[in-house]
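User: Some background: our group keeps a shared notebook of sequences we're curious about, and every so often someone picks one and asks for a predicted structure to add to the entry. Today it's my turn. The entry only has the sequence so far, pasted here. Could you supply the structure so I can complete it?
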Amino acid sequence: MITLFDLQWSPLLVIILLACMMLSFYSLYRNMTWQRQKRLTANIGELKLLRTLLGDFQRHRGLSTGLLAGDISMKAELSMTRARLDKSIHRAQQLNSTHTTAWQPLLGQWHQIGQGSVCDPAKNLLNHHELIRTTIFLFEDIAGELALSQEQQSYLSCIWQEVVQTAEWTGQARALGTGIAAERFSSAAQRVRLRFLHEKVQRLSASAFATLGHSKSNPMNLHNSREAISDFLVCLEQEFLNSAHPQIEAKLYFEKATLAINELLALVDKALTGLEQTQRRH
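Assistant: Of course. Here's the predicted structure to add to the notebook entry:
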């Protein structure tokens, strides 16, 4: 007769128990891996949406400032930008995100700006600055959750911080300069602010390009980005920093600054695409 003690130490039973344990551990591992990949995919999706919002928020800021300063040629493009933003905001509202609470201030700030009730250019700029700051903070928070190798960390931290911040300082200079160009006049305080922005863009872009230029795992062709930033800085200095009465057309200045911003944001796009491709391979 086989006793319970005998069953406990039966080789067959031991094998069965080990097999069940291995199957359970494997199932748990697969589930954890799937959950991690699902979270990573969701995070990258949110980052891509935030990147789209960032570009259009900055564009909306510059166009609305120019319009409020009297350049009615920007009205049609402003309407198109606002329409794109409304679609992106609708997507954000439909997100099943673990960052829902963090999204709420951004959505609320855009709701106020999107109504278009602010007529004071300075207040309009301030409202947009706060909205874009909220967007960048949320972007950095979500990006910080990504599990990355040490080599990736150096490259992507430069993208998330220095490149994004350079794009934002350039965006602020675009908005302020567009309004000044539309009015054909700048105050001493505005020129001081533009000089500060010029220095910020110059310093941060140089640091970012140096870091990205030495990245072995993510080589980038930075020629176009360098040229666009350099041309923008020269334009800013020649047209605004040394004269209270700029001669450049608001639309032309807006487009020159936009080229620089687009080149910077293209670096963010490339980084996000690389992350997405890496995630799919795993």
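Suggested note for the entry: The domain at 53-281 is CATH 1.20.1630 (Formate dehydrogenase/DMSO reductase fold). The chain is about 80% helix and 0% strand.
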